[in-house]
């Protein structure tokens, strides 16, 4: 699997950041490409829970996230799938002197493959996924400040 990641530090408490992260009603404000949440399956955000969401017309389509690990105050790992990839996505919350560091990592494998897939992934897809995580975290931070 190919990894991409983004890390930002915000002036907020770990608990505040974690509560906002798991509040799927707010995802549209900060998750890059998300159009709407289709369903939230309990016991979200605990292990076994999940979220299904749809992207906008030019996006990923239907995305499903199922929680496979969760530690209160520390983070969560989900298995994520869409029409083009499968992966494992982890968010970690760490208290730092200036507030909270949020580290988001996605390890993915493309399911639609052709002879040029490795090249396209290396030149375009991986970079766009990394930028998408970074845009999402930046918007997440803006929401934390606005509600802060």
Overview of this structure, please?
With 148 residues, this protein is an alpha+beta fold. Helices cover 30% and strands 43% of the residues. It has a single domain (2-147), classed as START domain (Alpha-D-Glucose-1,6-Bisphosphate, Chain A, domain 4, 2-Layer Sandwich), CATH 3.30.530. The protein contains three helices and seven strands; from the N terminus they run βααββββββα. The mean pLDDT is 92.
List keywords for this structure.
7-stranded antiparallel beta sheet, 148 residues, alpha+beta, Alpha-D-Glucose-1,6-Bisphosphate, Chain A, domain 4, 3 helices
Mean pLDDT: 92
Helix content: 25-40%
Poorly predicted runs of 5 or more residues: none
Shape: globular
Strand content: 35-45%
Q: Class by helix and strand content?
A: alpha+beta
Q: What is the name of the CATH topology?
A: Alpha-D-Glucose-1,6-Bisphosphate, Chain A, domain 4
Name the CATH architecture.
Answer: 2-Layer Sandwich
Cα end-to-end separation: 37 Å
Radius of gyration: 15 Å
What order do the SSEs take from the amino end to the carboxyl end, as H and E? Answer: EHHEEEEEEH
Number of helices: 3
For this structure, the quaternary state is: single chain
Task: Give the number of domains.
Answer: 1
Quick structural summary:
With 148 residues, the protein is α+β, with helices and mostly antiparallel strands. The protein has a single domain, classed as START domain (Alpha-D-Glucose-1,6-Bisphosphate, Chain A, domain 4, 2-Layer Sandwich), CATH 3.30.530.20. Helix content is 30%, strand content 43%.
